[in-house]
Amino acid sequence: MTAVLETDHAQQASTGRMVALQNVELSFGDKRVLDGVSLDVHQQERLVVIGQSGAGKTTILRLILGILKPNAGSVFFKQNEVSRMNDHQLESVRSRIGMVYQDAALLSSMTVRENLALPLQELTNKTPAEIDRIVDEKLEMVELAGEDKTMPFELSGGMRKRVGLARALVMEPELVLFDEPTQGLDPVIGALIDELIINLTSRTKTTSIIVTHLMDSAFHVATRLAMLYRGQIVEQGTPDEFKRSTNPVVIQFLRGTTEGPMLNRSKYHMLSPAD
Ligand SMILES: Nc1ncnc2c1ncn2[C@@H]1O[C@H](COP(=O)(O)OP(=O)(O)O)[C@@H](O)[C@H]1O
Ligand SMILES: [Mg+2]
Fold it and tell me: Which of 171, 168, 215, 172 is nearest to 194 (CA)?
């Protein structure tokens, strides 16, 4: 009986895993940014990775997309080891992952509709009519129906983020990565973006990884949190578990005070006086 249960559990664990980082090390020159990061992301969770500016959060997203290769350790998307893939294999993995960039990264010479249609035109065989329908549906989802002919420069910061979000969804990805989705927005628009992230990912049963250094947003959106500090995941758990953490680094970051271990000088670039 026990053996059966264990097998079930093991199978669940392997099919339920969306992303895994295993002992990942990454340096830029002699600067060690990730120093043995291990992290599992399960299907349908919203994992929020928190950490100081320069801690390596964006770097983790780039490793998952295979844009960066680790110096040691492995990165998996489902059963695929991204860190060992060639460019052709990576293309197929990337078409299943949506990325919402920090600055939205819209093409400035194209309308909102053209920006959203581009991945569908380049990566699928869908007809123009099908593409139009998908674009309309995604714009509706982010409450921007009617803005399809707008140029990116005409959009407010919050609208740009929503277009970036809609574009990440056009390929109906299994996983969406968000890089600082609410940074630079006023608190009300930031909360609106958080709500959209929660609603859209739960409605479409999409897994998401959100990196941010904004605590209100992190606690609002997360089903689980992980904190990156000095190249390692120093704490992970549910929002409630995080609030009860006794780790001094976590306590300091959550409180946002200068009291604690965080401002101590170290060999890590992110804490060097040059920053
Ligand atoms: N391509 C790169 N070349 C050199 N250093 C980089 C590169 N990308 C990031 N870094 C450095 O790695 C550290 C982590 O960067 P990043 O992942 O962007 O941090 P975060 O997103 O947490 O603010 C920073 O010190 C940054 O300057
Ligand atoms: Mg970043």
Answer: 215
pLDDT at 255: 87
Choose one of 58, 62, 69 to mutate for the ligand 1 pocket test, by most ligand atoms within 8 angstroms of C-beta.
58
For residue 3, pLDDT beyond 70:
no
> 24-28, 72-76, 122-126: which range is least confident on average?
122-126
List domains and CATH numbers for the chain: 17-96+177-275 (3.40.50.300), 101-172 (no CATH)
Average pLDDT score, the chain = 89
- In whole angstroms, give the CA distance from residue 70 to residue 254: 29
Closest-lying ligand 1 atom to the alpha carbon of residue 228: 22
| DSSP state letter for 84 | G
Report the percent of the chain where pLDDT is more than 70. 90
- Ligand 1, atom 2, lies closest to the CA of 28
